[in-house]
Amino acid sequence: MPREENGGKMRQVYFDNAATTYPKPPSVVEAVKTALEKTGGNPGRGGHSYALSAAKAVYDVRKKAGEMFSAEPENVCFTQNCTYALNLAIKGVVSPGDTVVISSLEHNAVARPVYALSKRGVRVEVAAVESTDGATLSNFKELLRPGVCCAVVTAASNVTGRLLPIADIADLCRKNGICLIVDGAQVCGTLPISLSDGINILCTAGHKGLYGPSGTGLLISDGKYELDTIIEGGTGATSGELSQTDFLPERLESGTLNTAGIAGLGAGLDFVRKYGIKNIYSHEAELCAVLEDGLKSLGGFDIYREGERFAPILSFNLRGLSSEELARKLSDEGFALRGGLQCAPLAHKTLGTFPDGTVRFSPSVFSSSKDAAALLSVLKKICKTPR
Fold first, then answer.
1. Which end of the chain has less neighbouring CB within 10 Å, N or C?
2. Are the beta carbons of 347 and 104 closer than 8 angstroms?
3. 205 forms bridges with which residues in the sheet?
4. Please, what's the b/e burial string for 159-194 (b: 16 or more CB within 10 A of its CB; e: otherwise)?
């Protein structure tokens, strides 16, 4: 059970890593601290030693990310988060009159931008995600036809962890000349994924499975599709021209970069590489399996795991109790899980859990089997309490 810390305050066991990982590795904290203390310049803004030092620090992380996701360093663009990266990608590729295909499990980071575009003459089609990859792929095949501008697909649902057949979808896109944009927020750092899977633009968060600080994200391109801009400004390059810089990464990086956050992201990339993606997945998937088996043995719980392959996320509900009420009870007992819609109403409509949502369990490398067992013990107590 969660123990009391000094002062009598209960320690919260954190199982909300699909929102952001916590705690961060000590190396990430130290990298941010060092950058703030010693890398004081503005990268790309000047030829003095401080600016050059900052530029080198940023480039080093750009190179690390490129190596992890099979991209050239210049095609790695830093953003504030995955949502911002997805907006840059979607609105950079799509024009009025185009057709966009998305899946039925998309996060609002995709659903809201395409909805906004639909008001401006963009046609949006939704491919239903079925219980099997084959049926899901068949639905995509019907929609991914010549003339479609792009497909925007999550690699894994942030609600259930359901993995989509990205490589097969990429093959359909390639055959039909369609740009494929992938939301990798729930798999980058946890499962292997890269541009070598046939992805044209990969967007992800720096603060989730890559263990970087909040305020960091990545847009990684294969360079095949030129992106229009949704923001213009200082880039440190082509400063004598009023038109926006026309080459990556500067084209999409207007304004001062989050140098300290990027330094922390670099340390997070190092942490993931050293720990090993296979090891990370194995540890987190085992904890999900422990919880799933425990919930099945308790009875009274609905578990949302229809499909073939999953990222280490588990959503569930206790019959007779709303997801938000159950999450509140768990919080009172010292466990941090997210209840509600998880910013993904489209996915919940697909699952049949809209508008109440689910309780989501998402562990990290710092989660322990002991804490998972303690969570099950509390769920058993709640389950036996009259509702």
1. C
2. yes
3. 217
4. bbbbbbbbebbbbbbeeeebbbbbbbbbbbbbbebb
Residue 183 and residue 129 in one domain:
yes
In the three-class reduction of DSSP (H, G, I as helix; E, B as strand; rest coil), residue 286 is classed as helix
Q: Cα 266 vs. chain centroid, distance in angstroms?
A: 17
Burial (CB < 10 A; 0-12, 13-18, 19+), residue 280, is buried
Question: Does 10 have pLDDT greater than 90?
Answer: no
Give the global pTM: 0.96
CA-nearest of 200, 133, 140, 146 to 175 is 146
CA atoms within 13 A on the CB side of 74: 6
Is 173 a member of any domain?
yes
- Does 6 fall in a domain? no
Provide the domain limits for residue 111. 26-275
Same domain, 182 and 115: yes
Per-residue pLDDT tens digits for 199-219:
999 999 999 999 999 999 999
| C-alpha to C-alpha distances, 48 to 41, 162, 198, 259, nearest whole angstrom | 9, 49, 40, 16
Number of residues that make up the chain: 387
